[in-house]
Amino acid sequence: MKSRRTLSGIWSLLRGALGSFRNEGTSLALTVFSKDRPLQLDALLRSVREHLSGDFEITVLWKASNEGFLAAYGDVFGQLRGMNIRSIEESEFLKDTIEALEQTPAGSVMFLVDDILFIREFRTEWLKRFRFINAVPSTRLDSQVTYCQPHECESPVPRLKAAGYEPWRSFSWRESIGGWAMPLALDGNVFSRREVVALLKSIECKNPNSLEAAFGPYRFWFKYRKGYCLTERCIQNFALNRVQTENETFPCGEYSSEAMLEKWNQGFRLDIEKMAEIKSNSTHIVCEPVFESRRMIA
């Protein structure tokens, strides 16, 4: 049954790939998944406002497990209403994700989870040279990434070549290991939106963690494409706590989502500037959160 589904998915990908032969332009659908992390979502969205520029739109697919988290999400979206964020309360994860991507005209898509921050500039115009049928650009990798924290293994930097246009460097997904061998990583890699929609329609999953696992059988479809990384990565995952029950062996901090909610209700938020100063040789880092007062906001 699984192999039959995979064959069906390959056919869907073949149809979806037709769009990725062409240049998709610079329009980007930024799709964010959030569960019980309103304080961290607030930080991510503020970092987007600070560092992302160009032609993009933001969709947040979020889920609150109780009234406290629900109220805090309302606070976040209320305070950031000037950002034109499309807010979708999750009812059926995969269906909601597909519908959100089908409703946008953007040519490309980047998935993010809510414990990520943009730590430096990214311009969507930097995507204009790519045809996604032979390229998987990543915003999460640079020459400082030498360790894969989720799997606790070395992640040596592959041979990086000048891409011919800044600020990108090219490398081989297929010949790399660790974090450099993950073309289907869903936190910060960029894909053709049409191709992703076709892939989503061929899989089964219930949340972002199982989504990346469900993409696994199709890794062969992407690993022969050329990888591209930035001279300096623009996103960083700060593993402060855990809100999912899958991949429980992955390292993370002990600052629970309930404790983060309490800090939010006490009038605090993450200090995104100081968080961005934390150095890491991995795309994920376990660290202590740095807070600042929300009451200081002008």
Provide structural commentary.
This protein is α/β, with parallel strands linked by helices. It has one domain (2-296): Spore Coat Polysaccharide Biosynthesis Protein SpsA, Chain A. The protein has nine helices and 18 strands. A five-stranded mixed β-sheet has the order 4-3-1-5-13. This is Glycosyl transferase family 2.
CATH architectural label: Alpha-Beta Complex
Integer average pLDDT: 89
* Chain oligomer state: single chain
Structural class: alpha/beta
Low-confidence stretches: none
**Class in CATH?**
Alpha Beta
Number of strands: 18
The outline comes out as globular
Order of helices and strands: HEHEEHEHEEEEEEEEEHHHEEHEHEE
Termini, distance in Å? 57 Å
Q: Summarize the biggest pleated sheet.
A: 5 strands, mixed
Gyration radius (Cα, Å) is 18 Å
CATH topology: Spore Coat Polysaccharide Biosynthesis Protein SpsA, Chain A
How large is the count of helical segments?
A: 9
Binned strand content: 15-25%
Helix content: 25-40%
- Read across the widest sheet, the strand sequence of neighbours is 4-3-1-5-13
Number of domains: 1
